[in-house]
Amino acid sequence: MFPRLSSLVVVGLHIAVGCTAFTAPTVLTRSNHNNNININNNNNKHVRLYQSSTSSSSTTTTTAGFIETELRGAAMRLHTASQAPKEGQAKEEKAPPTAKPYTPTHSDYLQFLVDSQYVYRALEDIVNDDNNHNDQLAVFRQTGLERVIPLQQDIEFISQEYNIQIPQVGIYGKTYGDGLRDMMTTTTTTTTT
Questions:
Q1: Distance (Å, whole) CA 14 – CA 12
Q2: pTM, rounded to two decimals
Q3: Is the CB of residue 107 less than 8 Å from the CB of residue 99?
Q4: DSSP letters along 103-151, please?
Q5: Percent with pLDDT over 90 in the chain
Q6: Of the candidates 82, 62, 71, 57, which has an alpha carbon nearest to the alpha carbon of residue 19?
Q7: Do residues 116 and 151 make contact, with C-beta atoms less than 8 angstroms apart?
Q8: In terms of Cα–Cα distance, which of 35, 32, 29, 37 is closest to 8?
Q9: Which alpha helices (H) appear in the chain, and where do they start and end?
Q10: What's the chain's average pLDDT?
Q11: For residue 15, pLDDT beyond 50
Q12: Strand, coil or helix: what is 90?
């Protein structure tokens, strides 16, 4: 009755996977009176596979949904021919030349530590300054999170270990640290006046 039943089942499973309506478990049933195979899932969505009486090939009848029409067409317009050889429509773009990734040196790391130490020194000076009469910052004093002394030890270690001269504070560290000091100065003068 169904000489190619296995191919019908494979087609049915492919349809069940490729169609958004079939997210629940799918059941294959065969109707004895018209030689049709019905695919049914728990959402009561049906796909009917049938075999013509004169041909041994199977065909499928489904209603094309949004995914198979509009969304697929839009997706294929975004794919290149190398990504989707049959349907890709986007132009191939040449890949930009790959730049060699930057590898930081010991000197770069030492500069980072020096800049960080300058910023942390500014923060600690602001917090520990008794002249600003700002008791709100008192909770940040003597917390064990102070970084100036440990950073100085790291700077000296790297300088001695790799025989690198300790650099001056860089523009970014100086700008940030001085900005913090200026901010505190303007805040203190506006608060006292």
A1: 5
A2: 0.49
A3: no
A4: ---HHHHHHHHHHHHHHHHHHHHHHH-GGG--GGGGGGTT-S---HHHH
A5: 32
A6: 62
A7: yes
A8: 37
A9: 5-18, 72-78, 106-128, 148-161, 171-192
A10: 74
A11: no
A12: strand
Contact criterion met (CB below 8 Å) for 31 and 38 = yes
Q: How confident is the model at residue 134 (pLDDT cuts 50, 70, 90)?
A: low
What gap in Å lies between CA 171 and CA 161, rounded to an integer? 25
Q: Are 96 and 120 in contact (CB under 8 A)?
A: no
Residue 53, amino acid? S
What pLDDT is recorded for position 161? Answer: 97
Residue labelled with tokens 């060699």: 100
- Measured CA to CA, the distance from residue 171 to residue 115 in angstroms comes to 8
Dig out the tokens for 96 from the structure. 């930009």
Reported as a pLDDT band with limits 50, 70 and 90, residue 135 is confident
DSSP 8-state code for residue 70: I
